[in-house]
Amino acid sequence: MSAAACIFCRIIRGEIPSFKLLETEKIFAFLDIQPLSKGHCLVIPKTHGERLHDVPDDELAELLPAAKKLALATGAVDYNILQNNGSIAHQVVGHVHVHMIPKPNEKEGLTVGWPAKETDMDALKALHENIKAKM
Ligand code: 5GP
Ligand code: ZN
């Protein structure tokens, strides 16, 4: 999707209203319109990029400090920081965003499925070598 049509780019430009919380040269933060819990908010880089690896490092570097500020300002004690990439990974809006989702109790906030697999140590060792060789 182009930056012209992107809903989050339009929020940054002020073409769509939002409950803005933070803005710098590089990032913008606002309340999520369909929160999982009270205080659920989003931090986005100003550069339009669909996935994490599409966004410049200097903008990515501001996302987590902003999420930390928001967690403190909302008074969240327990919370999840979430960033989805790709529709199968639950990304709905195609502009990188970091969720800060307070977890006030078992029912509200993020619920996560965690289908952990048995470990094959040989396969894990081979994977380790493979990934290291590509960085
Ligand atoms: P995703 O599933 O892509 O990680 O999450 C997208 C998030 O953006 C959802 O939590 C959704 O509620 C939020 N969202 C979608 N459209 C708008 C909007 O127009 N304004 C605001 N404030 N949040 C939005
Ligand atoms: Zn965008």
TrEMBL record:
According to the record, the signal peptide region is none
Cofactors demanded by this protein: Mg(2+)
Q: Per its UniProt record, what InterPro entries does this chain match? A: Histidine_triad_CS (IPR019808), Histidine_triad_HIT (IPR001310), HIT-like (IPR011146), HIT-like_sf (IPR036265)
Q: Which GO terms describe its molecular function?
A: hydrolase activity; nucleotide binding
Keyword annotations for this protein, in alphabetical order, are: Hydrolase, Magnesium, Nucleotide-binding
Q: Does the keyword Magnesium apply?
A: yes
Please report the stretch or stretches of sequence annotated as the HIT domain. Answer: 7-110
Q: Which reaction does it catalyse?
A: adenosine 5'-phosphoramidate + H2O = NH4(+) + AMP
The GO annotation for biological process reads: nucleotide metabolic process
One Pfam short name: HIT
User: Which sites are catalytic?
Assistant: H97
Motif Histidine triad motif in this chain = 95-99
Q: What's the domain of life for this entry?
A: Eukaryota
* Membership in a protein family: Belongs to the HINT family.
Put simply, this protein is called Adenosine 5'-monophosphoramidase HNT1
